[in-house]
């Protein structure tokens, strides 16, 4: 008999895949945010890892810019890996309950930045040193929460890539960070056969959701969908942080 949590996982990844299929990103953010309402972030991330890697691999190689992306983003990629590795115990150690609060606050920040439509600009001569710092900070945040969007997303949008190059760069970045997160989780003993069935269900649901999202993308206002998606992420973030604060101090 299937456990109820498996139906929840299927629904979460169907929605997360739909979001990615519609706006081209958001699968790990949606999945981590929703799964964290039912399980510890570390266990949620263990389920998110494989679907996230596989859905981003196509994005990584589906374009002619890979060499240029690696030449420009190597400090960001190395910094992110170092940050994730150095903060490996945050999600599974004694401070693990607080990662849910951080995750909630991160979702709120992510939504506010997206809704504000604030545009930053980074000069080409500053990309190398700033990319390393942004990568290190992103890695620490990702190690604690499983979410790699802050402060990496504003940086990637600020360095002046063309649209198609940026999409491929996001695939490269998220694939690299997710593989490093998998290394951390494997060291903590969380990447094991117990997640085989949940992960399989998650991948099937994610691809089904992506297919549906791609079908409706041409028929709907993507900008309106993006705005409501960000509002929903803000509400979810407030709920996650508030619930855990009440649980810890209420």
Describe this structure in words.
This protein is mainly alpha-helical. It is built from ten helices and no strands. The chain has helices at residues 4-23, 27-35, 41-61, 66-86, 96-116, 127-145, 152-158, 163-187, 196-217, 222-249. The protein is globular.
User: Whole-number average pLDDT?
Assistant: 88
Helix content: over 70%
Q: Based on CA inertia axes, which overall geometry fits?
A: globular
Radius of gyration: 17 Å
What is the β-strand count?
0
Reading the helices and strands in chain order gives HHHHHHHHHH
**Helical stretch count?**
10
Number of domains: 1
Proportion of beta-strand residues: under 5%
Report the uncertain regions. none
Summed up, what is this model?
The chain has 250 residues and is mainly α.
Task: Based on the model shown, name its key terms.
250 residues, mainly alpha, 10 helices, globular
List the SSEs and their pairings.
Layout: H1 4-23, H2 27-35, H3 41-61, H4 66-86, H5 96-116, H6 127-145, H7 152-158, H8 163-187, H9 196-217, H10 222-249
């Amino acid at each position: 008999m299937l456990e109820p949590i498996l139906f929840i996982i299927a629904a979460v990844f169907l929605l997360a895949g739909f979001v990615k299929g519609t706006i081209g990103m958001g699968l790990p953010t949606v999945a981590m945010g929703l799964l964290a309402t039912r399980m510890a972030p570390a266990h949620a991330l263990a389920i998110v890892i494989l679907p996230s890697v596989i859905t981003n691999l196509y994005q990584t190689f589906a374009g002619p810019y890979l060499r240029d992306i690696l030449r420009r983003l190597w400090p960001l990629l190395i910094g992110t890996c170092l940050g994730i590795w150095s903060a490996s115990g945050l999600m599974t150690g004694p401070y693990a309950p607080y990662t849910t609060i951080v995750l909630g606050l991160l979702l709120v920040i992510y939504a506010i930045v997206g809704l504000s439509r604030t545009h930053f600009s980074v000069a080409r001569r500053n990309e190398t040193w700033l990319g390393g710092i942004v990568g290190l900070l992103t890695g620490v945040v990702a190690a604690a929460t499983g979410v790699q969007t802050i402060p990496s997303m504003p940086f990637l949008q600020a360095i002046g890539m063309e649209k198609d190059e940026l999409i491929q760069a996001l695939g490269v970045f998220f694939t690299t960070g997710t593989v490093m997160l998998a290394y951390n989780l494997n060291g903590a003993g969380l990447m094991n056969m117990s997640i085989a069935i949940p992960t399989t269900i998650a991948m099937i649901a994610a691809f089904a959701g992506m297919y549906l999202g791609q079908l409706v993308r041409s028929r709907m206002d993507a900008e309106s969908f993006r705005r409501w998606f960000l509002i929903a992420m803000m509400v979810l973030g407030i709920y996650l942080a508030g619930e855990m604060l009440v649980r810890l101090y209420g």
